[in-house]
Amino acid sequence: MPSRNPRALPPDLDPKAVPDHVAIVMDGNGRWAGAKGLPRNKGHEAGEAALFDTVEGGLDAGLSWLTVYAFSTENWRRPASEVRFLMNFNERLLVRRSHELHEREVRIRFIGRRDRIPPHVRRRIEEAEALTAGDTRMTLAVALDYGGRDELSRAVRALAAEIREGRGPRRIDDRAIARHLYAADMPDVDLLIRTSNEFRISNFLLWQIAYAELHFTPVLWPDFNRQELFNALRVYQGRHRRFGAVPDPTPGPESVTPPGPGTQSDPGTQSNLGTPPDPGTLSRADPTPSRAGSPGQPPAPGHAAPTRSRAGSPGGGA
User: 21: burial class by Cβ within 10 Å (0-12, 13-18, 19+)?
Assistant: First the structure.
């Protein structure tokens, strides 16, 4: 459940409508550095300050979970020197910041494959998770060597193995699959943010973002901060999350009518009929149920068309 214990929420944000789980694709480190004539690694270093100011903003807002995309399964395709830098950078970050996060009662979790992570980095991950295991104010989940398809295929293989051994569930449903994901206790994502004016999901939390609201910002990740997070929360709080239903102005038992001939009955399309509203003027009404929901609103008119600038996923802030 959301902590709902904000430290310093801006007065125009409703503490009762703060999302439980925010996920961020931290994109734009390389472009930020390139625009300043700096090496790409300087962009990754600058992204650390952005991450921890955003963590402070999550605590200010009362988030329960903040999940960030640090390194994807596709990022191994990058130059070996950059991969080494990112792995060593994550180790140094854990050494510098684990105790600071522990003091703020932030639990650290890592999701993703660990078999390919260098042993010295794995040790730091295990130490950070052990140190903060009892912290309950917020969970910071770091997706490292993570891919959404990889997570799902591994979950299904584990489930199939249990069934073959005669110890699997009687019924294979959403809950059975969810129990085999990297973090079985992770709630569905309410709000997915992607920086740097890219309009892609990039294989991030494919199961968990099924009904997330999507927010795309042109801000490059090193320039992101808690104020940008609050801006995204304002957009989120302005949205109607209908979860496949159609709001009825006169609710009552007689208002529920089974779909008949010619009636649109696909829950995946009902909530998207009509002209998408401007994110700045949308209004949010109902709370978020667990493991259910409706598709997020499409980008408002006037947004730049999606780009396909490069292959692979942005983990590490491309």
Answer: buried
Tell me the pLDDT tens digit for each residue of 277-317: 443 333 333 434 444 344 444 444 444 444 444 444 455 55
Q: Of 3.40.1180.10, 3.30.460.10, 3.40.50.920, 2.40.50.140, which CATH number belongs to 19-148+187-246+263-270?
A: 3.40.1180.10
Q: Which residue type does 304 have?
A: A
d(C-alpha 229, C-alpha 164), whole Å: 45
> If residue 109 lies in a helix (H) or strand (E), which one and from where to where?
strand 106-111
Q: Other C-beta atoms within 10 Å of 62: how many? A: 22
Which residues are designated catalytic? 27, 75
Instruction: Count other Cβ atoms within 10 Å, centred on residue 56.
Output: 17
The answer to whether residues 152 and 122 touch, using CB atoms and an 8 Å cutoff, is no
Helix (H) or strand (E) holding 67: strand 65-72
Task: In whole angstroms, give the CA distance from residue 134 to residue 164.
Answer: 35
**Does residue 260 surpass a pLDDT of 60?**
no
Q: Per-domain residue ranges for the chain?
A: 19-148+187-246+263-270
Contact assessment for residue 216 and residue 236, using Cβ atoms and an 8 Å cutoff:
no
* Token reading at 281: 């003027």
Query: Among candidates 305, 298, 254, 293, which has minimal Cα distance to 272?
Result: 298
Q: Does residue 225 contact residue 57 with C-beta atoms inside 8 Å?
A: yes
Residues 6+ apart with CB under 8 A from 313: 69, 72, 73, 74, 75, 147, 202, 203, 204
Supply 8's token pair: 């310093």
Write down the pTM of the prediction. 0.77
pLDDT tens per residue, range 224-238: 999 999 999 999 999
Question: In the structure encoding, which two tokens stand for residue 70, read together?
Answer: 């640090």
Q: Which residue carries 């009404």 as its tokens?
A: 285
CA distance 145 to 71: 5
